[in-house]
Structures are given as structure tokens and as C-alpha cells.
Amino acid sequence: MGDKAALMDHCLVTQAAYLNKFTRPTNVPSNSIFSTYSYAIHFEASLYAKYLRKYSEKRGVTRIEALITGVNLEAESGDVASVTLNDGRVIEGDFFVDCSGFRAIVSEGALKTGFEDWSPWLFNNKAWAANCEDNGPLTPYTRATAHDAGWQWRIPLQSRVGTGHVYCDRYTSDQEALDVLMNNLDGKVTRDPFLIRFQPGRRKLSWNRNCVAIGLAGGFVEPLESTTIYFIQTAIMRFISLFPRSRADRISSDIYNRMMQKMYEETRDFLILHYTETDREDTAYWKDVRQMAVPDTLKEKIDAYRHRGWVQNEIADLFGNDSWHSIFTGQNVLPESYSIIANNIDADDLRSRLTRMRAIISNTAVQMPDHRAFLSQHSPYVAPDSPVMTSA
To answer: Are 39 and 25 in contact (CB under 8 A)?
Structure first.
């Protein structure tokens, strides 16, 4: 109808982010503007891991500090019987959770599960990561900035800024990629850059025999949407819901594998969309990502959206309709038509409602507290070596 307002003018969280504002909705009525407000969390992952370790050990989990040097299979069934540690100990078990990272010592090294390589669609395979000082306002969002052969993340915490340059080594050298990172920092480096190598893809079976691969052992796409911790938590919850009654619980493992495959593939397609529909073509990297053939599942989504603005999202696992709309619109993938049901809405009433919506969103965002002020009140940063942190 010719309305020039941007899609993001109708989104409270986006308007709040532009203003460096944040508040957490609690106990809101269904008709409140906060009723559909959602958010994610930036946190210090290393401290979270220590917290979980202490939590588990207090509840009876035995932690053994050692390296796995061998995985022993049962001759008859092919299941995992035990693992051998570098100090000679042998740890037997009924079921094994492989959290050995990209190495996948049990699920791949011993069980030969197989790996689906997604590098034809997700080009990036390395990242330089570092920490630096924050010399600006504390922003309530992650920023992704495109570079010539990849992109750079910026994740602000109260104590520092986490940053890194993700790239494809077919289009730039490691040194060139490091130079890009170092030339685009907020402040003084507080942790020297370190190189991360990865291969995008997933294990063909997340649950194989009496072993489930969780985290990087199960697969990895790339850091663009920070999905790794979500994948870990989702994998754990789904495994708990399908906890095996015996080693040979093939029905449960089949269900689990289908769910995990769908989650990985939906996320893969969402990430590919960021690249393949870009308008950028000033470097060989961006030219090539624009021209690559996409998976059929993503092609169907793009065609459906171009046709009538329809988001074909079967499970809405991590990225719901709003996320897909945002990327489509942001990449200038616009519908050629719309649902005929919209013709039943009075045009003047619709304009009036959208105008009021934008005004309410704008006024609400302005009144929200500053992000740093909110965190200082509800979650103030405590240095790891402080007495408070030690006793917590």
C-alpha cells in the first residue's frame, strides 16, 4: 500500500537495541507489548562451564582428569564397552556421551559414524578470536560486520569485548585475516588472538549404538548465529526425553537422529541465506557465495517467500518466522504478492493500527533502562578472583 516504514519499526527489541536499552519482561499480561518479547544472553562461557562442573560434582558426578587414548568395542555387538585413559585406567560404561569436540573420539574415531561435509555451502573454515577492552557504550546485541573474505563478530560483556574474524582460507591468508581483525578492534587487546579451525557439517548419526555425540562432536555450522551452546542444551534435553531403556533402543535413537538432523539442516539453511542472497559482489568471496547452488530445502523457502511472503518453516526450532522475515527483508528478498486473506482487512484500519503500533514501540523503547544500568542493578560483574566469586 506504499507504506515506507521499515519492518524493524514494528519490532520493540530492535528499537531498544538501537538505543542501547534493555529490560527483562516478567509476569506480563497477554495484551502487553512485552508479551512476545524474547531475548538471548551474552555470558562468560568459561565461568558458566565452571559453575556447571561444581553443580554436577556436588550432586554425585565423578570427574576424572585424564586423556582418552583408546576406545574399546565389544567384539560381538560393536557397541562401546570402555575407554582407556592415558594413565592406564579403563572406564567401563553402559552408555557414552561423546563431548570430545571436533575430534569425536568415540562417535567417529571408534564407531566410524560418518560426517556430512557442508563446506560447499558454508565456505568459512577458520577464525581468529581475541578479547579487547570496550571503549564505548555497552551495546545489548552482537554485531556481525562483513569483510572481504568473511565477517567479524563483536560480543560485548561487562568486563570485555569478545571479537573474532571468521573467514575462508581459500580467499585470504591467515596473516591477512589476522590483520583485518587487529585493525578493527574497539580497544587494547586483553587476550592474544588464537586460531580456530573447523569444518562445517554434522555427524551422520547424532546417536550411534550406545553413544550420543553432543556439541562439536555432533556437528558445527559456523559462528554467525552463535548456535553451539543452544545445540548442546537442545541435544541434552532431547536425549533426556528419549533416555534409552537399553543399549539397543533403536526406536529412541531413530527419533532422536531425525530431530537433530532437522535442527542442523534448518540452521544450515538459515545461515546460507545470509550469504547467497547478499547484494555484495566486490570480492571473489562474495561473488562465489552469491552464485553457489543452495540446498533444495532452502530453495523451496526462498521460492515460497518470493511468491507471497510465506515462511515455510516446518519445525521453527531455533529460528522462527520473525527471524526468517528479518533476513529475507534485510537481504532485499521481497514478495511478489501476498496472501489473499489480507484483502479482508480494511486498509484504513490497518494503516491506523500500524501507526499506533509504531508509536507505542517507539515510546516504550525510549523509556526502557540503559543496558549497562540494567545489568549493574540485576547482574553486576564480579571479577573471577574476587572473594564473592570464590565463595559463590
So the answer is: no
